[in-house]
Amino acid sequence: MSQRGRPTDFGTVGLLCYFALDEEIVQEFPNFIRVYRDGRVERLAGTDTVPPSTNPETGVQSKDVVIDPETSLSARLYIPKTPNPHRKLPLLVYFYGGAFCVETAFSPSYHNYLNSLTSKANVVVVSVDYRRAPEHPLPIPYNDSWAAVKWVASHSTANGGIRVGLERLDGVKLVGIVLIHPYFGGKDPIGCEGSNMVGKAVCDKLWGLSSPESEDGCDDPFFNPGKNPKLSRMGCRKVLVCVGEKDVLRDRGWCYKEELGKSGWGGVVEVMEAVGENHVFHLVDPTCDNAVAMLDRVASFLNEEDNA
Ligand SMILES: *[C@@H]1O[C@H](CO)[C@@H](O)[C@H](O)[C@H]1NC(C)=O
């Protein structure tokens, strides 16, 4: 008689299968994120957090605020130690990276970076802790980010994307946008992607994880902004794109400049490329020469005369 023929074993076998299916990993990105069949998500990167503080080196103060109690959308604010508290300071709304699915606004790498940038540029920063995919797939991270921008505008006492160009934002003038190693993509490989198909495949697969419902796949305008027919409506006058020479995403940064230029938008777009550097090198090694040079460039972009 075979094992399977023994009726008393059925229950046990059935139960074991059930648990095995639940524990089955359906998507895995090594050292990054794991998704189980039952929908459970295990993050393997970007899980550390640090509390708000007064940074001893820079005197920068940070504080956490809840923007929307219903969704728990929150942000970390950074205030520089400024000699004249009555002077108007530029305001930076910052969105952390992590392919929409790892990291938070409270992670030590972003916290340290923003302490440095706040101090160097003498700006006020609102670092938005948008909700993440895959539990909250796109467009939720984008919608949270937009809700945060509107919240910032509503708290502005002075007379901010494409969405800024389409929907009015009272109280705030969006001067410019800085994109640091932007996670853009597209169906057809371009530039260095052709010789790094493995890197490109990871980028594409991650996009699928954060945007499973997307009808256009990797050519979704959220991922491939050149496919957005409204690109020319971008609501600011200048854009700085920072890329790393060795980053698989490098040519997407350059391509964004090209697409903006072709669109008829009419603003100024610049690319700063860090020679020999890879993705988010400035967070990994914030004191290296290229990271310091990039911080300086971003800080001066935020303080240019024509911002007024
Ligand atoms: C995101 O925002 C858009 C535009 O306002 C809206 O149409 C859409 O329903 C929102 N989606 C979610 C999931 O909140």
Write a concise synopsis of the structure shown:
With 308 residues, the chain is of the alpha/beta class. The chain folds into 3 domains: 43 residues, no CATH class; 111 residues, Alpha/Beta hydrolase fold, catalytic domain (Rossmann fold, 3-Layer(aba) Sandwich), CATH 3.40.50.1820; 139 residues, Rossmann fold. The chain contains 8 helices and 10 strands.
List unreliable stretches of 5+ residues.
1-9
Q: Report the portion of residues in β strands.
A: 15-25%
Bound molecules: 2-acetamido-2-deoxy-beta-D-glucopyranose
Could you tell me the number of beta strands? Answer: 10
The CATH homologous superfamily of the largest domain is called Alpha/Beta hydrolase fold, catalytic domain
How far apart are the termini? Answer: 86 Å
**Biggest β-sheet: strands ordered side by side in the sheet:** 4-5-7-6
Q: Could you please say which CATH topology of the largest domain applies here? A: Rossmann fold
How is the main sheet built? 4 strands, mixed
CATH architecture of the largest domain: 3-Layer(aba) Sandwich
CATH class of the largest domain: Alpha Beta
Q: Please trace the helix and strand order, writing H or E for each element.
A: HEEEEEEHEHHEHEHEHH
- Rounded to an integer in angstroms, the radius of gyration calculated over CA atoms is 22 Å
| SS element count, helices | 8
Key phrases:
binds 2-acetamido-2-deoxy-beta-D-glucopyranose, four-stranded mixed sheet, 10 strands, 308 residues, AB_hydrolase_3, Rossmann fold, alpha/beta, 8 helices
